[in-house]
């Protein structure tokens, strides 16, 4: 009887050991998942940095790459002169006006004031890219370009001035340090560490203090889809093609910036 009891006792003990280990293994799986649950998402990091949240110890822009002389949006910067139906050219005095400022590709209209953590970081990065060859605007102050100039509008055409600012495009990512650790972690990135998808555009400034860029006089043949689009919009501002990209009905003549009077 003693011999038959021992094997049963041994098997029973093995089962009990197995059952005791099973909950421990389950807990080992759950713990890592719980550690990740409270991590700040890239969108939360971006929102906290943009709002200069009190939860942050610091938020900084980390540059990864840059491109100088990157052209900005194509903008109409003068009123439209209508010379439609006339067989001769017309001389007109155009009032040209535009402005540039540092812009940040986080969300539409986002500026990052200088007194915020992120704004200060953008300023410091701007200092790094400000050289003797290329002078850039490092803060969110506006620099303007305003002058009057007489030019010729072609027969049966609409005439106006176009402008595209030259910018230094610095791209990288955001690194946020939180005051309180979230499941043991205080540093988070948006959108990810090493990414180059957050863009900061620093306008480039000429030595005379005016914005650098491309300025051109555009003539658009009347009666064409291009002219009709401008007239039907009541000459209001709209998206325009770049220099030399508007098609055969449009003539673009670049104006050297040396001909623009200093402010």
TrEMBL record:
Signal sequence segment: 1-39
Keywords noted in UniProt: Signal
Name by which UniProt lists this protein: Secreted protein
Naturally occurring in which organism (per UniProt): Streptomyces aurantiogriseus
């Amino acid at each position: 009887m003693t011999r038959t009891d021992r094997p049963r006792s041994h098997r029973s003990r093995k089962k009990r050991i197995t059952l005791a280990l099973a909950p421990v293994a389950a807990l080992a799986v759950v713990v890592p998942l719980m550690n990740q649950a409270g991590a700040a998402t890239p969108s939360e990091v971006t929102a906290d940095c943009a709002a200069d949240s009190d939860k942050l110890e610091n938020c900084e822009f980390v540059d990864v790459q840059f491109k100088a002389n990157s052209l900005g949006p194509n903008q109409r910067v003068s009123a439209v002169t209508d010379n439609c139906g006339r067989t001769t050219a017309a001389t007109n005095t155009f009032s040209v006006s535009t402005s540039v400022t540092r812009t940040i590709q986080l969300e539409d209209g986002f500026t990052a004031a200088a007194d915020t953590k992120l704004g200060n970081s953008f300023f410091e990065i701007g200092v790094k890219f400000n050289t003797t060859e290329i002078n850039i605007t490092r803060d969110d102050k506006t620099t303007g370009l305003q002058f009057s100039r007489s030019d010729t509008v072609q027969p049966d055409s609409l005439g106006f001035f176009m402008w595209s600012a030259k910018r230094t495009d610095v791209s990288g990512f955001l690194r946020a340090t939180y005051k309180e650790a979230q499941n043991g972690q205080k540093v988070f990135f948006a959108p990810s560490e090493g990414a180059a998808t957050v863009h900061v555009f620093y306008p480039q400034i000429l030595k005379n203090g005016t914005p650098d860029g491309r300025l051109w006089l555009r003539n658009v043949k009347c009666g064409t889809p291009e002219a009709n689009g401008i007239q039907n919009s009541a000459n209001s501002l709209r998206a325009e093609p770049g220099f030399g990209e508007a098609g055969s009905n449009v003539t673009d003549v670049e104006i050297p910036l040396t001909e623009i009077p200093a402010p």
